[in-house]
Write a structure and sequence with these properties.
With about 850 residues, the protein is an alpha+beta fold. The protein has 25 helices and 27 strands. Helix content is about 40%, strand content about 25%. The structure holds zinc ion (ZN).
């Protein structure tokens, strides 16, 4: 690596929103501690006109060669130089439509199409907008100015320092210098932005496009709350004078934490009264809190390399939920965390095709459909485990120490352990390493022999493995004596096998109290399972534990260690279950088994589920009730749709009549809109399709469009499914093309058509944004491949010989397919 440190970039841009090009000048101040004769910078799809070296008041032209494969330009200096080097590069780039680099995003005002130009740089697309040393550790300050049309607004990381009128009728917007920061966090955007400023904290603003300002209030308020929480909890003030939250129509990810210029998908920032569901509202809060946590975890203290990306994403995930829970304790946010984050991470990480949270290997560690569940969901879950182990106070103090020590600099995993060790005086490095540096997680098997409880650990995967791995597992066991109160036993399991003495009066034990630990449990003795089942039935153990028992059981079925028959039998203990967490998990697992298994099993599942769901819906009511728990409202939307799919008449009658009313122009409650539209599509005909098409064209509200696009994956009629797949490719905007397809991957009528659709339209589908393309593969392959396994495997064998595109996701999807095939073919 060249010994060069960037100190400052002066970037001057002239975007042309009619021709989708921009002219740029980038003046880079570098420090060369030793003599260098050339400078290598990253560029991608930039045309370089000239490179000059500033010498005194003059310039010397420098020869240069671009190497597109390496995404680099090599600038030859006139003579070997050390110390400060100032290079000025003139270039031109594209305002592309790839949702990466400097790109355009489309919106309409009064039927007229208009464009904004914005940036998305993580993790290595800043090079599409200016020549730079594009690595997170190469921090520098940035001075940015942009020439734009008078009626437009420009936003960047710094506050606007001044605006000057230019002779050509334009204006030049100059931004204040940024703090020392990484290239991937730079942002600039140009468009007809309007601001909504928070009344209590004038630093916080939401930027929207014309017509959207009325939806900004909710986001701006929660932005202020998140900022307030962060400054107090981390004990470091936010260093910039403004915090912009910017709603962008076309956006590949959910949001991006550019320092003080955070970008969002519209539905994750804008709140549409009467249209945004409670779930949508929670997502908005969670995503805002996530991005604002990044202003410390990532922006202030940056991973010294992409392999430590978890230091950004795991913390942002964790605090995304933590901040919401702090302000809205009644939303059961941590239960939703267990379901959505921990639960999905346990599923993802039980594949052979997984990797450590601290990602090994290359300089390009991309956030994709394969890595995200590990570095976001698993990482966040491990933080919850650490907090449980060292205590809330120590956790907070450790983080404050870490952030203060490395502010404006970089850190790696061990710096975090050292901070925890400094404040706790406990040797926790070894424990942390076992979770961060190795892939997978353990299955704890518990056997009781009289008064001894024997625990063993080995790596859990769905497919057989002979991995030789060990974790330091913080374990808490709830012990249920014959008489008296439940007791807790806490210790660190640091061996493969460990024995614990139990008192004679212990009737039952539940491992992983409240499911704070990131592992699964298998109980060998059936007597204990029966005892625990009885406690599930009488709901004398908390919902988290009832969830853990159900969720682990289903994972054991998928691995072949238990049978589907036994799992269904165990569910009889959940007859009176009314808590969100175990019910949502049960509904999800039952439906995933339903998708995989043959008709005989489908009958069994639907005859078990239908009366249960009808009973629950009868109790909570089909219609949303004002003031009810958020989780009740999530559950209703899920169970209505599931019940209809299993053939429930009352559920169909209710949702069907709601949809009929909707078509007539009546209002449907936001909290059941998703299921009502899904049922509408399921029973729909041609005119239903046309209705969705018309509504999609007319609607300006992303939350509503997403509901409709999910519904468009739910048709039963084959002709409509085919029409909908064509519509997805032709009409649905790039950012949302994956949505109907993912919905079809859980539609038993669409699944048989998906593989041919994928193969026949491959060239078009490969043009999706890389992450969205991966989502399509991950959704289709494990289910659509069940009846065509050989064909699918052969296809991808050849595919992977030709290219690396989506390699990780293809491999993990094939593994999921294998797991499904084993489950389907298991003899019960
Ligand atoms: Zn993030």
């Amino acid at each position: 690596m060249q010994e060069l440190n960037p100190l400052n970039y002066r970037i001057h841009l002239e975007p042309d929103l009619a021709r989708f090009k921009f002219d740029g000048t980038c003046e880079i101040l570098l420090d060369a501690p030793q003599t260098v004769s050339e400078v290598t910078l990253n560029i991608l799809e930039l045309a370089i006109w000239s490179c000059r070296l500033r010498q005194g008041d003059g310039f010397v032209n420098c020869p240069f060669t671009a190497n597109p494969d390496r995404e680099e330009v090599r600038v030859i200096l006139p003579e070997p130089t050390s110390g400060k080097i100032r290079l000025i590069i003139d270039y031109q780039g594209l305002i592309n439509d790839k949702m990466a680099g400097f790109y355009r995003s489309k919106y309409t005002v009064e039927g007229q199409t208009r464009f904004i130009a914005v940036t998305q740089f993580e993790e290595s697309d800043a090079r599409r907008a200016f020549p730079c040393m594009d690595h997170p550790a190469q921090k520098a300050t940035f001075d940015i100015k942009i020439d734009i049309d008078n009626q437009l607004v420009a936003i960047s990381n710094g506050a606007v320092k001044k605006e000057d009128r230019l002779d050509n009728g334009k204006k030049r917007v100059t931004f204040a210098q940024t703090p020392k920061m990484s290239t991937y966090l730079v942002f600039f955007g140009v468009g007809e932005f309007e601001f909504t400023r928070d009344e209590k904290d004038s630093r916080v603003r939401v930027a929207t496009l014309p017509g959207m300002k009325k939806y900004a209030q909710f986001g701006v308020e929660f932005g202020r709350k998140s900022l307030g929480f962060s400054e107090t909890y981390y004990a470091i003030d936010y260093p910039l004078p403004k915090m912009d939250l910017i709603a962008i129509p076309d956006f590949a990810f959910g949001a991006m934490e550019n320092w003080s210029a955070i970008t969002f998908r519209e539905n994750l920032l804008l709140h549409y009264p009467e249209i945004t569901s409670k779930f949508g509202e929670e997502r908005i809060c969670e995503v805002i809190a996530h991005e604002i946590a990044h202003q410390w975890f990532g922006n202030l203290v940056t991973p010294s390399d992409w392999r430590y990306l978890w230091l950004n994403e795991s913390f942002a995930t964790y605090f995304g939920f933590g901040v919401v829970d702090y302000y809205y304790p009644k939303w059961d946010t941590w239960q939703q965390f267990l379901n959505g984050q921990t639960g999905s991470a346990l599923v993802r990480d039980a594949l052979h095709e997984t990797f450590a949270i601290e990602i090994p290997g290359g300089e390009h560690v991309v956030i994709n459909a394969s890595t995200a569940p590990i570095i976001y969901n698993k990482g966040g879950s491990i933080l919850r485990q650490i907090e449980g182990y060292i205590g809330k106070d120590n956790f907070q103090k450790g983080l404050q120490h870490y952030l203060k020590t490395y502010e404006y600099g970089c850190a790696d995993s061990q710096h975090l352990w050292q901070s925890f060790e400094t404040v706790t005086q406990q040797p926790i490095s070894a424990m942390m390493k076992s979770w961060i540096e190795q892939p997978g997680f353990p299955l704890i098997t518990a056997r009781r022999q009289d008064r001894r409880l024997i625990l063993t650990q080995r790596r859990f995967t769905y497919l057989p493995n002979d991995f030789d791995q060990k974790w330091l597992v913080p374990i808490t066991i709830s012990l249920f004596p014959k008489t008296g109160a439940t007791r807790q036993l806490t210790f660190l399991l640091n061996k493969i096998e460990q024995e614990i003495d139990l008192d004679a009066d212990i009737l039952a034990y539940k491992i992983n109290d409240q499911q704070t630990g990131f592992y699964r449990t298998q109980y060998v003795d059936t007597a204990n399972m029966q005892e625990l089942g009885a406690r599930v039935l009488e709901k004398s153990i908390p919902p988290e534990d009832r969830w853990g028992l159900e969720n682990d059981f289903f994972a054991l079925v998928q691995s072949g260690a238990s049978t589907l028959q036994d799992y269904l039998k165990f569910l009889s203990f959940y007859q009176k279950e009314d808590a969100y967490l175990p019910l949502t998990s049960m509904a999800h697992n039952l439906y995933s088994a339903y998708l995989v298994m043959d008709e005989r099993w489908r009958q069994k599942i639907s005859s078990l589920a239908t009366p249960r769901y009808e009973d629950i819906l009868g109790k909570i009511g089909y219609d949303p009730v004002s003031g009810e728990n958020h989780t009740t409202s999530h559950l209703r939307d899920q169970l209505i749709w599931d019940a209809v799919r299993y053939g429930s008449k009352p559920a169909l009658e209710f949702a069907g009549s709601q949809f009929a009313a909707l078509i007539r122009g009546a209002a449907v409650h936001a909290d059941i809109m998703k299921s009502v539209m899904q049922v509408g599509a399921l029973c729909g005909a041609d005119k239903t399709f046309d209705w969705f098409d018309r509504r999609l064209r007319e609607s300006k509200i992303e939350h509503a469009r997403l509901n409709m696009l999910s519904a468009m994956g739910c048709f039963r009629d084959e002709a409509l499914i085919i029409k909908s797949l064509r519509y997805t490719l032709d009409t649905v905007p790039a950012r949302n093309k994956f949505i109907p397809v993912v919905a079809m991957a859980s539609n038993i009528y669409a699944i048989p058509l998906l593989w041919d659709w994928y193969v026949n339209n491959l060239a078009e589908i490969e043009q999706f944004h890389p992450m969205l393309y991966e989502r399509v593969i991950a959704a289709i392959v494990p289910v659509a491949g069940i009846r065509r396994a050989d064909e699918v495997k052969t296809f991808f064998n050849n595919y992977l010989k030709k290219s690396d595109t989506a390699k990780d996701v293809i491999k993990l999807s094939l593994e999921r397919l294998e797991i499904n095939l084993r489950m389907r073919n298991a003899l019960y």
